[in-house]
User: Which sequence fits this backbone?
């Protein structure tokens, strides 16, 4: 369903973030992407929904080409791809419900959504998404009044409101504490299993990757250096991906970090 | 890990450039003062002018007569309110078009920016004179002049606030497949709306003050009274009106500051 064919991304200024990437992801997979910061994890996800334009190669989502797609075509592709962010990217000065309704932007006519005239069925959809992540009681609370974990759940609900086929999660737990991190990862896992949404998650904690992933992809300096079943992954695999030995910093919880 | 060095750095020497800039400023100031014939003695002579005796006592009965001051003052308020409404409403879409974060495309950005720069380059007093000449003496011309003035101020302040807004919710809206206008209105507008209201209050405050000045060129309001009494050399009345204006501006400023503090 997702195909990267010899994809390269070069940013203005000449930084090569992806180099000749080939990758195929099937429907319903749960893929975890690891790599050092700057390895191209974020770029990979953003190239997939066209937030970052690929400079070379071809990316297809359900046979639709993303690279060089028109603005209208890109909106159509994005409407089926939910995205959640490291920093949650919520609008703090408005309600949780208004944030989740942003997931309905592609489905509602622009003249309605611009003036906040959301149709009843889209409000209902947003409420259902909030129910699925278990914080519907916060629907009319300002987003800024929520804790980090709750904010990320709103982020997930916003993505779910799109009725997505694919879910992209860019370091979804990097700003959260260990317990909340596990809750959010469990939410993502359950959504993948219950709704069959193909999920790609960037992580930098290796124990979380091993705990929740099914398939592991390793990036190093923009190149794909590992692609395989998480069951086959050993510490040596991680060392090979990172190009250095594994330290406590790479783990969410260790004996010495029980905070 | 690099080793921590414990030797203190040498204190940097003052730069030659600093002295050169200071010397230039001093020479330039003295030169300018000579050129315009500035001297402190004329400034003091001004205060011994017999003109000042004409300012006292203030004829309060005349000031508190409805037709003399209250009605023109109401007109000033009306001019300020209508101009704030028109200027700030127009400024809303223009500010979003002129901010690098939310502009729909480059041509719109450059054209709008160029037009607004021209509008702002012309001072409000000149707009007032122009409009008084074009559509006649009175509050109508004043309202138009101040609407343009409000628009210019508002666009400048508000577009810069939009520039500084958090771009990340906008990225989320785009990632969800949103079109430009609804993405901006849902992703950026709630963040900058309190600032918009605060600036509108500030613009109202400026308009009250400006509509006093605009009266001097025949654009209606309390300024007309000041100008008329000045021409009759009734400086006692002028002082009375100015005191009233001073109190009103002070009150409006305090209310506006208090309201704005609650908003941001």
Assistant:
């Amino acid at each position: 369903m997702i195909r990267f064919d010899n994809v390269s991304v070069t940013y203005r200024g000449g930084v090569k973030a992806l180099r000749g990437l080939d990758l195929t992801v099937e429907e319903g997979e749960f893929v975890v992407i690891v790599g050092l910061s700057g390895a191209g994890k974020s770029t990979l996800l953003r190239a997939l929904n066209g937030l970052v334009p690929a400079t070379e190669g071809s990316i297809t989502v359900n046979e639709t080409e993303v690279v060089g797609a028109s603005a209208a075509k890109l909106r159509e592709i994005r409407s089926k791809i939910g995205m959640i962010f490291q920093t949650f990217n919520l609008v703090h000065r408005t309600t949780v419900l208004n944030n989740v309704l942003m997931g309905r932007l592609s489905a509602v006519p622009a003249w309605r959504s611009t003036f906040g005239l959301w149709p009843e069925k889209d409000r209902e959809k947003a409420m259902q998404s909030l129910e699925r992540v278990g914080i519907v009681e916060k629907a009319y609370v300002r987003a800024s009044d929520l804790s980090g974990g709750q904010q990320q759940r709103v982020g997930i609900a916003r993505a779910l409101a799109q009725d997505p086929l694919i879910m992209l999660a860019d370091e979804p737990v990097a700003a959260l504490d260990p317990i909340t991190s596990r809750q959010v990862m469990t939410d993502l896992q359950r959504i993948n299993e219950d709704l069959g949404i193909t999920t790609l998650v960037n992580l930098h904690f290796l124990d979380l990757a091993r705990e929740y992933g099914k398939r592991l992809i390793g990036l190093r300096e923009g190149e794909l250096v590992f692609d395989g079943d998480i069951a086959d992954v050993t510490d040596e695999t991680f060392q090979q991906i990172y190009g250095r030995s594994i330290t406590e910093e790479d783990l969410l919880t260790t004996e010495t970090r029980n905070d | 890990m690099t080793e921590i060095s414990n030797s203190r750095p040498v204190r940097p020497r003052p730069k030659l450039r600093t002295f050169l800039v200071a010397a230039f400023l001093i020479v330039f100031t003295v030169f300018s003062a000579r050129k315009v014939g500035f001297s402190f003695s004329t400034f003091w002579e001004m205060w011994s002018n017999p003109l000042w005796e004409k300012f006292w006592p203030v004829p309060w009965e005349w000031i508190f007569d409805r037709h003399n001051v209250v009605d023109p003052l109401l007109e000033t308020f009306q001019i300020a309110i209508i101009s704030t409404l028109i200027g700030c409403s127009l400024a809303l879409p223009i500010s979003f078009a002129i901010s690098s974060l939310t502009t729909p495309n480059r041509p719109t950005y450059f054209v709008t920016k160029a037009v607004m720069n021209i509008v702002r380059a012309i001072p409000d007093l000149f707009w007032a004179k122009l409009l008084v000449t074009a559509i006649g003496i009175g509050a109508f011309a004043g309202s138009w002049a101040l609407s343009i003035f409000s628009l210019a101020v508002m666009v400048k302040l508000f577009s810069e606030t939009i520039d500084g807004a958090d771009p990340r919710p906008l990225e989320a809206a785009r990632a969800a497949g949103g079109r430009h206008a609804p993405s901006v209105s849902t992703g950026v507008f709630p963040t900058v709306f309190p600032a918009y209201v605060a600036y509108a209050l500030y613009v109202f405050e400026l308009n009250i003050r400006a509509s006093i000045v605009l009266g001097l060129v025949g654009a209606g309001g309390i300024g007309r009274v000041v100008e008329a009494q000045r021409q009759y050399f009734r400086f006692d009345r002028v002082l009375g009106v100015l005191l009233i204006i001073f109190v009103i501006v002070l009150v409006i400023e305090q209310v506006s500051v208090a309201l704005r503090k609650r908003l941001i």
In short: Chain B has a mean pLDDT of 88. Chain B touches chain A through 22 residues (CB under 8 Å). Chain B has one domain: 60-263. Chain B has twelve helices and no strands.
